[in-house]
Amino acid sequence: AGIGKCVALDLARRNARTILACRSRERGQAAVEEIRAATGNPAVVLRLLDTSSLASVRAFARAVLREERRLDVLVNNAGVTGLPFTITPEGLEETFVTNYLGPFLLTNLLLG
């Protein structure tokens, strides 16, 4: 939703292979179908990613590096605010890991 969906729509309109990295399979798949229909670009795909989980970030990065020939652009867009103080199963504060540590780790893992 929001800025991320707009960016994905613009990339797909430019005929780019576009990977939507989403926490929710249902919402992500709906966005994929909407973007494909709006652009005619079949190369819009969904991959699950939860940046509040470093394990999810690592799994996503491994899959992208294994499955994609190249990665030209990475847009780190997702973030949260106003959550109650919560510690993740990995022992990290949820807002901090979601907004900063997860995207930082993802970027570094994808640099290759």
UniProtKB/TrEMBL annotation:
InterPro entries: NAD(P)-bd_dom_sf, SDR_fam
The entry's keywords: Oxidoreductase
Gene Ontology molecular function: any one: oxidoreductase activity
Similarity remark: Belongs to the short-chain dehydrogenases/reductases (SDR) family.
The name this protein goes by in its record: RDH11 dehydrogenase
Species annotation: Halcyon senegalensis
